[in-house]
């Protein structure tokens, strides 16, 4: 079994104490930028299914962000993107297809679209110009006319001049001039963006700004550990294909899951057998997609088979999650197959194999019977709260000074390093930067991390500790070396 090490430190150096203040100023600037992003005006893109909303979103963004497929219902929740045009930044919210009077899943999708409209500063209604105004478009228009929010009408799929005349009939919706565009080819997208910028206010209106969509959860683990079975149990439907043959899932499968009163976006991934760079063929691409899914997630549920000993594959998956800096929950699946003897064995295995991640919350579940799967939601919330947590610089330095005074770092090269200043330079994952006079051993860093967690929590999230060592300055006043003259 290979040793797991989730340290991942990225160290550096410093030469002047002004760097302490400059780093703190950079952190404050980053927080101000985050607040500015939250205070951007919001444009909600709405319309019935399959009119090209996500394609138009990608055209406005200038990049492929929203998932696009030539079938209705691909987009289900409201997803926010940061957009820029004409020197203005705004938040663009893509929504699922709006079907008034729908039921089941489609009703939930419609509710997400209505929530996006109610919190937006302007609404862009997208209509398929090649079809014309349908009864659903007219129903949506009636709702939008009653609201006080500015509304723009985009007549999409005007791919050539012949369809321009058809857009005139869309005046009947009572939403003003329709803007003929082709999201696929980019036709007239600039004119539409100019109109959007004019309609958006300088500052967002008051109200709920939480339009970023559900938190993203990646289901990861070795093959045949029960990831797809867990997703099917959570969704209550056959969302992923399940078979006793390992490797059934190849592409990541994402689903909206209602768990403990909150909507989550779960992504089922392919089981990892080998390292990404040593896999080949379809297995290589499956591994690459799994790594991409982990990077795109905020928190990962690492599924472990309770009925089998901890393997190198399990540790490799866990290493990938921690190195990606994601929050983590350990789910021990197939708990219904574990007897008393196996539980005693597991205690010894976990003490030895998971010694580097004692901070990860552990939940015993059974994807087959549904045992304790509802306990995943509190563990996910705790991990994400830790992932987003920040400790103020003053409080951090006061705590660290007391810690180092009680237990100073070990002597290295005849000198004892001193920690002069510390700050939490980032979140997601939480990252501490220590300015020191000398290198800190890995064991002492782990000691600081353990005490840091005891004091401030951070359960379920990796914590990175970076050390910046003071550069040695050349001595001043030293006599220059004499160079012997040639005779």
From TrEMBL:
<dbReference type="GO" id="GO:0005525">
    <property type="term" value="F:GTP binding"/>
</dbReference>
<feature type="domain" description="EngA-type G">
    <location>
        <begin position="41"/>
        <end position="204"/>
    </location>
</feature>
<dbReference type="InterPro" id="IPR005225">
    <property type="entry name" value="Small_GTP-bd"/>
</dbReference>
<dbReference type="InterPro" id="IPR006073">
    <property type="entry name" value="GTP-bd"/>
</dbReference>
<protein>
    <recommendedName>
        <fullName>GTPase Der</fullName>
    </recommendedName>
</protein>
<feature type="domain" description="EngA-type G">
    <location>
        <begin position="215"/>
        <end position="388"/>
    </location>
</feature>
<feature type="binding site">
    <location>
        <begin position="94"/>
        <end position="98"/>
    </location>
    <ligand>
        <name>GTP 1</name>
    </ligand>
</feature>
<feature type="binding site">
    <location>
        <begin position="156"/>
        <end position="159"/>
    </location>
    <ligand>
        <name>GTP 1</name>
    </ligand>
</feature>
<dbReference type="InterPro" id="IPR015946">
    <property type="entry name" value="KH_dom-like_a/b"/>
</dbReference>
<comment type="subunit">
    <text>Associates with the 50S ribosomal subunit.</text>
</comment>
<dbReference type="Pfam" id="PF01926">
    <property type="entry name" value="MMR_HSR1"/>
</dbReference>
<feature type="binding site">
    <location>
        <begin position="47"/>
        <end position="54"/>
    </location>
    <ligand>
        <name>GTP 1</name>
    </ligand>
</feature>
<dbReference type="InterPro" id="IPR003593">
    <property type="entry name" value="AAA+_ATPase"/>
</dbReference>
<dbReference type="InterPro" id="IPR027417">
    <property type="entry name" value="P-loop_NTPase"/>
</dbReference>
<feature type="binding site">
    <location>
        <begin position="221"/>
        <end position="228"/>
    </location>
    <ligand>
        <name>GTP 2</name>
    </ligand>
</feature>
<feature type="binding site">
    <location>
        <begin position="268"/>
        <end position="272"/>
    </location>
    <ligand>
        <name>GTP 2</name>
    </ligand>
</feature>
<dbReference type="InterPro" id="IPR032859">
    <property type="entry name" value="KH_dom-like"/>
</dbReference>
<comment type="similarity">
    <text>Belongs to the TRAFAC class TrmE-Era-EngA-EngB-Septin-like GTPase superfamily. EngA (Der) GTPase family.</text>
</comment>
<dbReference type="InterPro" id="IPR016484">
    <property type="entry name" value="GTPase_Der"/>
</dbReference>
<keyword id="KW-0547">Nucleotide-binding</keyword>
<dbReference type="InterPro" id="IPR031166">
    <property type="entry name" value="G_ENGA"/>
</dbReference>
<keyword id="KW-0342">GTP-binding</keyword>
<feature type="binding site">
    <location>
        <begin position="333"/>
        <end position="336"/>
    </location>
    <ligand>
        <name>GTP 2</name>
    </ligand>
</feature>
<keyword id="KW-0677">Repeat</keyword>
<keyword id="KW-0690">Ribosome biogenesis</keyword>
<dbReference type="GO" id="GO:0043022">
    <property type="term" value="F:ribosome binding"/>
</dbReference>
<dbReference type="GO" id="GO:0042254">
    <property type="term" value="P:ribosome biogenesis"/>
</dbReference>
<dbReference type="Pfam" id="PF14714">
    <property type="entry name" value="KH_dom-like"/>
</dbReference>
<comment type="function">
    <text>GTPase that plays an essential role in the late steps of ribosome biogenesis.</text>
</comment>
